[in-house]
Amino acid sequence: MDVYQRSYCRPIETLVDIFQEYPDEIEYIFKPSCVPLMRCAGCCNDEALECVPTSESNVTMQIMRIKPHQSQHIGEMSFLQHSRCECRPKKDRTKPEKCDKPRR
Fold first, then answer.
1. Cα–Cα distance measured from residue 91 to residue 70, given in angstroms and rounded to the nearest whole number
2. Which one, of 42, 38, 18, 15, lies nearest residue 28 by Cα?
3. What are phi and psi of 97, to 5 degrees?
4. Where do the domains of the chain lie?
5. Residue limits of the Platelet-derived growth factor (PDGF) family profile domain (predicted)?
6. Would you say 9 and 46 are in contact if contact means Cβ atoms under 8 Å apart?
7. Per-residue pLDDT for 102 more than 80?
8. How far apart are CA 15 and CA 35, in angstroms?
9. Are the C-beta atoms of 54 and 86 separated by less than 8 Å?
10. Whether the bond into 32 is cis, omega within 30 of 0
């Protein structure tokens, strides 16, 4: 059952676009433009469950930040990595939160 173990919910190296992590830094070009991070992925074998992180840590990487026609420098940027994952019930994102307001 090697396939089952390899496809089950776990941290796996994933290439993540830096703009996905830093969407407000659009004035820069980053080299590299994506970084390898451990992120939760995989199957939970139940449609009601999703693979979510239960333990996270920050990792710092040196990234070149280029401001076109102005400057470039290598700086440290921090990224979130997942170190443990678990299958948990999906949060229902389709139903609006129910407010129990008193009726008049």
1. 45
2. 18
3. -60, 140
4. 2-89
5. 1-92
6. no
7. no
8. 5
9. yes
10. yes
Predicted pLDDT at 1: 64
Is-contact 15 39, C-beta < 8 A? no
User: Is-contact 19 26, C-beta < 8 A?
Assistant: yes
* Strand duo 49-67 + 71-89: pairing: antiparallel
Q: Give me the residue label for tokens 């280029």.
A: 66
Phi, psi of 28 (to 5 degrees): -105, 155
pLDDT bin (cut points 50, 70, 90) of residue 4 is confident
pLDDT > 70: what percent of the chain?
87
Q: Which amino acid is at 84?
A: R
pLDDT tens for 23-72 read 999 999 999 999 999 999 999 988 999 999 999 999 999 999 999 989 99
